[in-house]
Amino acid sequence: MVFSKSIIDIIKQRTSWRTYSKRLLEEQIKEKLYEILKLRNFKSPFSEVAGNCRFDLIGMPEFDPDEIKFVQLLLL
Q1: From the Swiss-Prot or TrEMBL record, what is one GO molecular function term (predicted)?
Q2: Where are the alpha helices (DSSP H) in 1-76?
Q3: What distance in Å separates the CA atoms of residue 27 and residue 50, rounded to the nearest whole number?
Q4: What is the pTM of this model?
Q5: Domain limits, the chain
Q6: Those residues with Cβ within 8 angstroms of residue 48's Cβ, 6 or more apart along the chain or in another chain
Q7: Spatial separation of the C-alpha atoms in residues 45 and 39, rounded to whole Å
Q8: How far is CA 3 from CA 17, 25, 44, in A?
Q9: Which of 71, 11, 16, 73 is nearest to 46 (CA)?
């Protein structure tokens, strides 16, 4: 893939609108998702540019779900 901007600039300019449930993800479901990610060895489509990327689940129960619209972590 060839991009007209650096992947970092693309990520910084990205916006996302999502709706979240107020319920926490059940532990059994989280375990299944982790297993799927591990077994499938998911890779980022930007791995050539971004290097070592990873997908992970992040829980934030200490925050008000109405205030959280989207959290995106960029680990460099």
Answers
A1: oxidoreductase activity
A2: 7-13, 27-40, 47-50
A3: 30
A4: 0.39
A5: 1-76
A6: 1
A7: 17
A8: 23, 35, 15
A9: 11
